[in-house]
Description:
Blueprint: E1 2-6, H1 9-29, E2 37-41, H2 48-59, E3 68-72, E4 74-76, H3 87-94, E5 107-108, H4 117-130, E6 136-140, E7 161-164, H5 167-173, E8 187-190, H6 193-197, E9 201-206, H7 212-219, E10 238-243, H8 252-266
Parallel strand pairs: 1-10, 2-3, 2-6, 3-5, 6-9, 9-10
Antiparallel strand pairs: 4-8, 7-8
Amino acid sequence: MRVIIQENYNKMCLWAANYIASKIKAHNAGKDAARPFVLGLPTGSSPIGVYRELVRMNQAGELSFANVVTFNMDEYLGLPHEHDQSYWYFMHDNFFDHLVDMKPENINILNGMTNDPEKECADYEARIASYGGIDLFMGGIGVDGHIAFNEPYTSLSSRTGVRTLTTDTRIVNARFFGNDPEAVPAQALSVGVGTVMDSREVLILINGHNKARALAETVEGGVSSKWTCSALQMHNGAIIACDEPACGELKVDTYKYFLDVEKKERL
C-alpha cells in the first residue's frame, strides 16, 4: 500500500488527477492500446477536484478520453437519471458533459430504475469482465470506512448487488436531500468490495478531519468487514491519497514512514 500525503485537498486532487492521466497515457502508448483503458469512478464531494483537473487537461488537449471506458461505483435505487441527486446526473453534471471526446457508449452506470435489480447487478459484473476487468478504480470512503455503498459488515468478497443504507449514511447524505434523512433512498445498487479489489489498481481519496479515523483504520487497523476500507491492505496496487487534516489519527511513526518512503520514491 502507498499512502500519498498532501498538504491540502487541492494538492491531493492534483496528485490524483496527474496519476490517473499518467496511467491513461501509458496505456495508450503501450502494447495494450488496442483495448480501452477501464476506469472505475466514484461520486461524492471527494473526487470533484479530481474531475475538475481531468476536465481541464482534456479540454486543453493534454489528455484524451476517446479510448477510456468507465464504470461507476453505485447508484441510488429508485432515482431516475433526471433526478438532480441521482449519480447519473452527478457524473454528467460534474464530469462527462465537460469532456470533449468521451463516447457516451463507453459510460457505464448502474440503472437505479431497473425492474430487476439482481439482473442489473449481474449484468454489470459481466460488462466489467467483458473488458478484462478494471485497470484503475478511483474511490472515496465514508466516515465509517465504507467503500461505495458497502456499509460496515458487508462481506469483503462481495460482488455488485443491492445494498441497504445505514441510518448514519442517510443522515450524512441528507444534506443533498433538503436535510431530510427520510428523503434519502433506503437502498442503492453498488459494486462489491470484491469487485473493487479485483481492479489492477485502486486509488482511494481521503480528505478532511472527519475521515481521520477511517484513514487510520484503513492503514493501521486489522482487516475486518467492520471497516470495509481495511480490505485495501490486501491489495498489491492500493494507493491512498489524503490531505493533512485526514492524518490526525495516524501514529506519528506511520505518518513519518509514508512521507519518507514517498520522498525516496521521487529521488
